[in-house]
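My current task is to audit a protein record that another person submitted. I need someone to confirm that the token line plausibly describes how this chain folds. Take the sequence as given and treat only the tokens as open to question. This is what I was given:
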Amino acid sequence: MSKNKPIGIVTLDGQRVTGEAAGSQPPAPPLRRNRVDPHRPIDAETGFEISDEFEPFNAKYDVFNRANWDDAVRSEKAVEFWQAYIMPHARARKADGYSQRDYALRNAAWHFTKAFATLKAGSQGRNEGFTDTFTLHGPGWPEKWPVGAPDAAAADIKKVAKLFGADLVGICEYDERWMYSAKFSRADMSERDLGLPAGLTHVIVVVTAMDRDLTATVPSALAATATGMGYTQDAITLMTIAQYVRNLGYEAHASMNDTGLNIPLAIQAGLGEYGRHGLVITKEFGPRVRIGKIFTDMPLAPDKPIRFGVTEFCNACNACAANCPPRAIPSGPPSFEAPNISSFKTIKKWTTDAEKCFKFWTQQNTECSICIRVCPYNRIFKRRRDRLWRWLAGTRARRLALWLDRRMRDMGRTRAQS
């Protein structure tokens, strides 16, 4: 694969935007690599254990970005994986959940997200929502509207976020530790400055729930429809909230997978706890969520991190690790060790092997979320019995909760209805 062109940005017509095709983008500005204090008082509330050698993560080493430049990850299958999001490049087959209709539905769910992402791919080499913040917004108001006390401003933002489609919303302080040390351009393989202004103080973290019935069909292209719709709803909600904040005269920069790490920000914003599978487990939807965020200078009251027994339960449970086909999820205790350069080695946690995970994705020609499907927290918490189970899982009787889950909840794959 080393002699092949990098994957770059795959546009809506299935073409790759790389190098000269994105040549009109401005030269990369100098990077800021300031030393970041690895420890914050909030770590006592989140349970984060961070070593003194901690440094912010460089987006260049994200496994999806490595698929563009690193021979350990990139391959023709990876190219086919990305291009399969555009019809007619999808490689439908007879296997259950992989028919033309399944890919048609999946790719339709991803359509608007890809449209937003590649809007400025050719002219500026941007991949918005994945390597760059969204820029599809109006100018806003030139003066700051007096939003009142931070508590009142936070309550208003949450009300507006729910109106605009958020399933959950939390607020945390802007934390340099979770911002990338540099972002990565897939168009010209360069590291770039994040492009955010100084003076940002808070992060509005937005959660969008994914469809449980679709997720139950994983592994399948059909199941990825839930992921695509999660991202699409997330993108629309984030950009709409950001425009509201801008209209009040404040900075607002909407972001999905780009610019900073969603998981620690969501945990600090009180939206959930960290699970063995490396995902946020929320009280309302378990791990069946997509996460986005908005960086702002609006004065907002931050939320408190929550604890409801996830860490202790995951220590006893091994469902995600046992059911992961490529064995990418660790079965042992949290550790400072990391399997490769796509992970932190300075945070004590369960760390998924991103290389094994992504390779399995490319082999299946679609995303995988088996770990979400089999997670005991993948429940419908509007039901009283599931709320009772969640309570039990957070007590010393967690092994009883695990026993009940294994005997009473069907975590097997549901056949796709194509």
Remarks:
- Residues 35-408 form one domain.
- The beta strands are 9-10, 16-17, 168-173, 183-185, 190-192, 202-209, 252-255, 273-274, 280-281, 289-296.
- The radius of gyration is 21 Å.
